[in-house]
Amino acid sequence: MSLRLSTVILPTDRWHERGREKWRRAEELGFHTAYTYDHLSWRTFRDGPWFGALPTLTAAAAATERLRLGTLVTSPNFRHPVTLAKDLMSLDDISGGRITLGIGAGGNGFDATALGQEAWTPKERADRFGEFVPLLDRLLTEESVTERGTFYSAEEARNIPGCVQRPRLPFAVAATGPRGLRLAARYGQAWVTTGDPKIFEEGTPEQSVEALRGQIEKLGKACAETGRNVAELDKILLTGFTPDRGRPLESLDAFVDFAGTHRDLGFTEIVIHWPIADSDFAADQAVFEKIATEALAQLG
Predict the structure, then answer these.
(1) Pairwise CA distance, residues 72 & 162, whole Å
(2) Residue 300: what pLDDT?
(3) Which residues contact 55 (CB under 8 A, 6 or more apart)?
(4) Cα–Cα distance between 248 and 272 in angstroms, integer?
């Protein structure tokens, strides 16, 4: 099974200082896709520079030619399907059809209360996500949409001429629970996971592999229930959140071993964080670039 290698570039740099340089370099290094987080702020980066995902991707689209671009991930925490659809259609046009929307239910971080609301419970997040994704699908595939939902509504919302990618830009649905996996099976062109958060702190890499194997099996069952072949979905692993943490980026050999193990599980794309000094994503830039340019060839 062939494997793609992608990166995620956090929006922490001013565009004209180091931001543009990173996205151009990602293209030069041959990454399949360069993603960014779609948050208002995130964890330890909250008190430092953090720019908006969609404007950053728009600038990246203008600065690159071949590199696919996307979010990992957008959520309903501060997005509405009607306005998001318009922005995504525009971004897909500007990029010439190079956009992937990574989308998830969101969490209970800073984004959850930034608009002044109470943080939603896991059930409330799942309820909203279950309405958000189908409406966004309609908005990106139909010229005019009217819908009355419990959480999200549209009144003759127009998205003409639609996406460059047909019938719409691809959704990469982040999910591990049954409701989210059903959404991935029905609406996703890809599925995204970061692993099992319950074993991140004290689990082992071997336990993580088994947990991921179980997630892929559940995805297969969800696809079977919807009459879809699970092989149709790309399976994306966003690294850095399994018990391995940053060890796969310590050397080319370490990454090749990690990537081979996860390719054998069925993953088709592995995403590594662009190094950021003095953070959880610190790594040697030279090793990172060596991985980008040599790892896939070693995997065969």
Answers:
(1) 22
(2) 79
(3) none
(4) 9
Based on the number of CB atoms within 10 Å of its own CB, is 244 exposed (0-12), middle (13-18) or buried (19 or more)?
Answer: buried
Return d(Cα 222, Cα 187) in angstroms, integer: 12
pLDDT number for residue 1: 60
pTM: 0.97
Give the phi and the psi of residue 39 in degrees, each rounded to 5: -130, 160
Measured distance CA(192)–CA(174) in Å, rounded: 4
Token code pair at residue 242: 């399994």
Pairing of strands 171-174, 154-158: unpaired
- Beta carbons of 61 and 98 less than 8 angstroms apart: yes
Q: Cis bond leading into 73, ω under 30°?
A: yes
- Please list the ranges in the chain whose pLDDT falls under 70: 1
Under 8 Å between Cβ of 226 and 182: yes
Quote the pLDDT of residue 141: 98
Position 2 scores a pLDDT of 87
Structure tokens at 130: 């279950």
- How many other C-beta atoms lie within 10 A of the C-beta of residue 118? 8
Cα gap 244→76, rounded to integer Å: 29
User: Using a CB cutoff of 8 Å and minimum separation of 24, what contacts does 64-68 make?
Assistant: 64/23, 64/24, 64/26, 64/27, 65/27, 66/27, 66/98, 67/23, 67/26, 67/27, 67/31, 67/33, 67/34, 67/98, 68/6, 68/32, 68/33, 68/34, 68/98, 68/99, 68/100
- Give me the DSSP letters along 161-196: S--SSSSSPPEEEE--SHHHHHHHHHH-SEEEE---
